[in-house]
Structure formats: structure tokens, C-alpha cells
Amino acid sequence: MVIKKYRYGAYDRSKNFQEGELNAENEREAYIILQNQGLIAVDLKESETKLSEKIVEHLEKFKVGEKWVSLFFRQLSTTLDVMNLKDALNLFLLSTKDKSQQQIIKSMLEEIELGKTLAEAMEKHKSVFSYNVIQMILIAQRSGRMQEISEKLADRLEKNYKSRKKLQSALYYPLFVLIVAAISMTIIINVVLPTFATFFESQGTSLPLLTQIFMSTAIFISDNIMIIIMSVILIVIGCLWIYKNFSLIRLFIDRCILKMPFVGRLISQREWMNDFGSLSFLLESGVQIDESIDMVARSTSNHYIRASWIDIKHEVERGGQIHSKIFPPEYQGLITTGETSGTLPDMLRRCEMMSEFEVEELSSQIPIKAEIFGTLFVGLIVALIVFSVILPVLSIDV
Questions:
Q1: DSSP 123
Q2: CA–CA separation, 219 vs 193, rounded Å?
Q3: pLDDT, tens digit, for every residue of 162-218?
Q4: DSSP labels, 243-307
Q5: Rg (CA), the chain
Q6: Count of Cβ atoms closer than 10 Å to residue 319 Cβ
Q7: In 10 A of CB 77, how many CB atoms?
Q8: What is the DSSP letter of 22?
Q9: CB contact at 8 A, 116 and 80
Q10: Residue-wise pLDDT tens digits, 75-94
């Protein structure tokens, strides 16, 4: 038995955030230890993980791809109708040609041959199978509902994958506009303006202030390009480190993000869509409501919404209801109806559908808004540059 050291961030029953370290055999055992101490973990990672191991984990996730995980459970739910788990995994091994996928399946088969469960085999590939996925498989094995829960899990993962892809596709256009604008500005400032400046100086014409500002900017950037790039990289790394290691700052930033116009609503609606869908799925799968909320909180990427779920769990543990003012107003009525009528999973599913419609509506507006603001932004920059060139021309005596 190998004992590992884990670093955690967790909330206690008084909603105070705590950080510390503990020893456990695996991640699941670490979560159980924290639960027994009355702590709800929202951040748990192995503290002694080497940098090389982290790189290998990220590469494994990148090579395999998010789509494969949903396909894996879809195939698993189908094949378990006619064969046992080992035969199903062997069939997957024969049907896949991707080496990374083959390595994962071989690894799981080896663990199962040693007498371990599928959930325990998946824990060796935490970068591919998330904590919630492993927990659902553990629940499926205990309840004997592997085929049913695998099918529901495949549906859930496919929905999340499609939603994420739609959002990424919507962001391609604004990213393209920003790249084109940056390239255009670089060419004009570093190529066009210096040519005009040389000509005007030969004519004995002094450059206006606006033109001098652009020229000074071009010279400064060209002379210090490496320093600027390194400074930007260090600033980004520093901000990410602060965000990752200071919970109060992380909570404040995530709350501010949710209050941003348009973008904040898009992010919040997408988070609620995933959370409502996950909670409905967990409740339908037979997971207790407090444990379901705990799992939803861990899978939520926005820390402010995550803290909100922690508040809801504490309220439920005190005998209260899941209904909370934390939820957007349009969902509160449905959730209240679900609790009072005993149809909470169904009402959560309806909330998910409403938020999904909202996300699709907001995502469809991104290219339009990006085109408008991108055109205005590029037009403003080009106008300033052209104006800085025209001014010296108008000052030349004919």
C-alpha cells in the first residue's frame, strides 16, 4: 500500500475556508477523510506530484480527447447487455487503433485482472476520468446498475462536450478579428509609419504629436520586443499563480466575472446548465441529495457558484431545502415546485433545458457582437494611424 500526501482546500460547517495536507492511499479516500472531519473539499491534489508526472497526465488527456470518454461509456453501456466487463474492455481494445486509448484500456484490464474494480482502475487515469465520473462508476458497481448508469453518464458527457464545442466555435470569430487587428497594427506602425516619417523629415516638416506618439511606440516595441514578451509571460504566470493559491482573490475574481455584461451571463448560464443537469442525473441515479450537491460543487469551475452550492449543502444538512435565492430568479419557481411535489429531478432537467436555450442564444450573438465591436475597434485604430499620417501631409508647404 502506497500512502500519498494530498493538499486540500475545503469549507467547514461554518462556511470558513481551510487549507492543509493529509495522507491517504488515493484521492477517493482523501475525500472520505475530509468528509469525516466535517469538511467539504473543493480543491484536492497530490502535493508531491512531480512536474514530469503532471506533464504526462496533461498529454494523456490531450491525446485521448474529451470525446473519447463519452464514446467509451456509450460503448460500455451497449456491450454490457451481452457480455461481462472484461470481455467488453477486450472488445474496445481490438476496435480502437489509437495508441493512447489502447494504453488506457490495457492499464484498466491489468488492474481488473489483479482484482480491482473498474472505478479503482480508472483512478490511475484521473486526467481522463474526472472524480465525478469515477464516483458514478463506483455507485454503479455498488448498486449493480452499471449498464444503466453508464448510458446516463454517456448522455451527460456527450451533452457537456457538445455545449463546450458550440461555445468554442462561437469564440473563433472574435479571436480571428483580434489577431488580424494586431497584425495590421504591427505592420502599419513598424513598416508604413517609418517610411512616411523619413519622407517628412527630408522635407523639413516636424511631425505632429500624434504621429510622434505612434513612432515612439513603434521604436520602443521594436527595441524591447523580447523584454515585452517576457514581461507579459511573467505577468500572466504571476496572475495565474495568485488566482490559484489565494482563495479569497479567486472567489472575488470569479464573482466579478459573473457580473460582467454579456460574458458574465453567458458563463453563469453555462455553469447552471451543467450543474442542473448533473444534479438531476445524480438524483435519478439514486445518489443522496447531500452527496449529489457535494459532487456538483466539485465539478463547478466558477468558485463563486461553487461556494454557493456549499451554502446550499449546509442548508440541506440542517434540514432545509435546496431552493435558494442564489439561483437565478427564472429557476427558483421550478425548483420550489420540484421540492414540494417530489419531482425535483424532472424540474432540474427543465431548468437545464432553459439554461441550455439561453446559452445557445447568447453564443449565437457572439459573432455578431464581435463583428460590430471588432470593426469599431479596428476602424478606430486605423483612423488614428491614418490621421497621424495625414497631419504631416497637411502641414507641408506647397
A1: G
A2: 11
A3: 777 777 777 777 777 777 777 777 777 667 667 766 766 676 666 667 777 777 777
A4: HHH-HHHHHHHHHHHHTSTTHHHHHHHHHHHHHHHHHHHHHHTT--HHHHHHHHHHH-S-HHHHH
A5: 27
A6: 6
A7: 20
A8: E
A9: no
A10: 888 888 888 888 888 888 88
Residue 24's alpha-carbon distances to 27, 34, 111, in angstroms, are 7, 11, 19
Residue 37 is placed in which grid cell?
A: 472531519
Question: Are 16 and 307 spatial neighbours (Cβ–Cβ below 8 Å)?
Answer: no
Q: Is 23 left (phi over 0), alpha (psi -120 to 50) or beta?
A: beta
State the sign of the Cα–Cα–Cα–Cα dihedral 121, 124, 128, 133. Answer: positive
Q: Give the separation between CA 122 and CA 389, rounded to whole angstroms.
A: 63
CA distances from 28 to 2, 85, 96, 335 (A): 14, 22, 29, 30
Determine the Cα–Cα distance for residues 223 and 235; give it in Å rounded to an integer: 20
- pTM (global) more than 0.85: no
Rounded distance, CA 106 to CA 98, Å?
Answer: 12
Beta-carbon count within 10 A of 3 CB: 9
Q: Minimal CA–CA distance to 361: which of 175, 161, 170?
A: 170
Residues 6+ apart with CB under 8 A from 312: 293, 322, 324, 326
Report the distance separating Cα 89 and Cα 95, nearest Å: 10
Q: Which of 184, 185, 189, 191 is nearest to 212 (CA)?
A: 189
User: Is the Cβ–Cβ distance between 7 and 21 less than 8 Å?
Assistant: yes
Backbone angles phi, psi at 5, to 5 degrees: -105, 130
Instruction: Say if CB 22 and CB 33 are below 8 A apart.
Output: yes
**Nearest of 308, 301, 310 to residue 271 by alpha carbon:** 301
SS3 for 173? helix
